[in-house]
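Notebook, p. 212. Picked up where the previous page left off. The plan for this session was modest: take the two constructs that came back from the sequencing core last week, fold each one, and keep the raw output in the notebook itself so nobody has to go hunting through shared drives later. Recording the first one now, exactly as returned: residue sequence, then the structure token string.
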Amino acid sequence: MNILNKYRHLSVFLLGPLCFGQYQFEIKNVSKNYDAVIQTENCYNDRCGGKGTVKLFDHKNSKVQTFVSDDLVVYAEQGQKLVRGKLIPLSKDQRSIIVDDFNFDGTEDVAIRNGNMGNYSGASYDVYVFNKTRMGFVKSKELTELGSNGLDIFDVDAQRKRLISYGKSGCCDIFTIEYAVIPNKGLDKVFEKEEDMTVEGRVKVTTKEKLNNKWITRTKVYPSDQYNRNKK
């Protein structure tokens, strides 16, 4: 019995750090098809980061795929106490994992937070698209670059089938770039807008639009107090 107890305690000692040494979070209904469990090693106050994993499950609790991030940033929600080994629920609005149809092929894709390597230390993401042949998610080089270079992950305009990225230079020069997704080819930049507010009292807006494979450039200057940048 003593020998059995000795090995039983040894098993707990060896397995303990794997099961209980990490901070664990659960996001139910992260999308219409998936739930997610997040594990990360380092947390300070309400912010976690460092190497981590995201395990994706279907709604029948079958594991679909595991993703690894070198800097998986997770924020606890208000009032939550972070305890190692305890499964902590998060809302689906948590930005450590984003599920959407990024390439407009009718299947959901996955973006996993990987640090703050974007424009002005904005959030950056590794992006994986669903591959019907492999029946799994495959990392997209183009979409990962797009998801790692802007102020945050790109917006998805499903109606127009456009991906929209944002950036800035200094305090007063804002850029918007739109991409069309071409099946079996990749991204095609089709629209650029620069909003230049470096001169006090005015906004200079320059747009470039790709029409019939030709770029059309337009420039207009607005008084600052009459310019609404959210107006289409």
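Okay, moving on. Second construct, recorded in the same format:
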Amino acid sequence: MADPLGMIWDVVFNALNAIFNPILALDPNPANPALTVLIIAFIVSLITTVANKYLVDQDELNRKQLEMKEFNKELREAQKRGDGKKLAEMQAKQTEMMQEQTAMMSDQFKPMIVTLVPIFLIFFWMRSSAIHDLVIILPKTVYWITLTPFWHFIGKFMYGGEATIPYGIGWLLWYFICTFGMSQILRKYLGFKQGF
């Protein structure tokens, strides 16, 4: 009897092959497809940034964050002064602020619900494709700024093995570096008032 999950994954994998293999074929170095990962990072960043832009009311989110920041500042000042009356007033308002914060967090989860499955599928495709063998050699400064030795240690702890190429990183860390950069650029371009 055929495995239904395996059949579904085959259909999804073939669809992702149809989308991403032409990009991979255009990569100047298909054996080490750094440009393909950069393009995929751009696509994923675009999907997540646009989802954030249109599924979360950015003005309301900024308003709530400023309100929360102001509340915390007032609370700290009242605690420093030992102002019991102000503290009692602030504690009465704290429940309302906690409800606001919970609502704010649930609003921020909306885009994740929409984007999580496609991103996971793309991740699994990258891990199963030629991208899995990608190695990027970073300049020494970038190697240290991105905390690459730490990530190599985590990888060794989780998966075993050693990083054998000096200043080298694999596809996953390269993807995260590209995604972070692309997200910052797209957020700025789409008018987000705050960073990543």
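Notes on construct two before I forget. The first helix runs from residue 4 to 26.
Flagging for discussion at group meeting.
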